[in-house]
Amino acid sequence: MLGIADYEFIRPLGSGNHGQYFLARRPARLPVEAAEVAVKVLAAESTEVAFRRATRELRAFAAVRSAYLVAPYDAGQQDGVFYYSTEYLPGGSLAAPAAPLDRPAALRAVAHAARAVADLHAAGVVHRDVKPGNVLLHGGGGRLSDLGLAHVFAEGVTITGMGSLDSVEFVDPALLLGERPRPEHDVWSLGVLLHRVVAGTGMYGTLPAGDGLLALRRVVSTPPKLSDDLPEPLAALIRECLSADRPTASAVADRVS
Amino acid sequence: MRQPDRSAPFEAVLLLPAYTDAPTVIATREEPTQLLVEGVRCANGHFNDPAVPYCQLCGISMAQLTHLTVLGPRPPLGVLLLDDGATYRLDADYVVGREPHRDPAVARGARPLHVTGSASGVSRQHLRVTLAGWSVRVVDLGSANGTIVEPPRDPHPRRLEPGVPAEIKPGTRVAFGLRWLRYESHRNP
Question: Which of A77, A124, A154 sits opposite B26 (nearest CB)?
Fold first, then answer.
């Protein structure tokens, strides 16, 4: 893809749950200082109704002032294709860091993601898609990006089919079984994220690559298991994040940092 | 990913702090109203189908409880798992097809479940999944290629008669054209 609206793409940055990211030159009309911005283009066809709902959700996200959230710039559509642009962080993500990450730096990024989730919850927003690929890195830690918008373009959807393998591991199975999203579901995701970052493994063994249906089955039918290599305070925290009585996101942030 | 026509007009909304007023009320999601259904509460207060012997959330036996039903908001009855791996929450009816939004049920609150591909053998409005009390039903909307219901561990798939709803149990596969979906739930065992 070469561009969308008045954004000229420089290069692809990768693909996410339901779309693709590009690095783009900042259009002249955008009143920000950065010369380069990140643009996400969604795979789902945009309609008037979906566009209104998506921009409304993004506005709610944008209205949450937090140093731990990736700053959104602009949302729009052209020829039935929906996009939104955000600040560009060159450090990569917890899923694919641009440079090797030591444990303290990784934990700091997780703590910052938990702060971001706490700020969203305080504003009544549930993130729905906390996972390593959405924790973007910069010199001072991490910022949480990419509010899950899949449900806007396919009403009632809890996870999207396309390339959702990386997500399903971090989603509270209760959500996969049909519960409506609540803040506690984000805390579950923070627990699995912490496990992935510290132990280097998921909590369901190795999920079948390339088979979303099998992966989903596994996550719904297997109780998550903690790695034996985890230091106890972190293991206890992860257990609590997955329990019936979960800590708040800000408590998670306090205990990680 | 489709390259949009760059010469087409575009619309854009700035999301920067100076351009979005801090909303005093965060927009609430358009969730369907939860219908009231008759159910039984387990000893831990979970709301269940009166027909089930064990609580579907905590597993506690419901046998000792007097089966006095109470009215309560119906919880989601599980999910529809589409063959591409997408899952859809069953807290509303769905119309499945290539142009599901044209079905009048969508205007009355059913969700369109869009299936793409003209070679898929899927009709524009192929089938509807409806919730009735604690049960889930499928009705074929007079589709060209029909709708086939395959209950779990049942070697005899059944072709639905158009317009006649059929109740499906968890694990049931519903084939339509070359596509399928499955009803997954921890409820209604």
Answer: A124
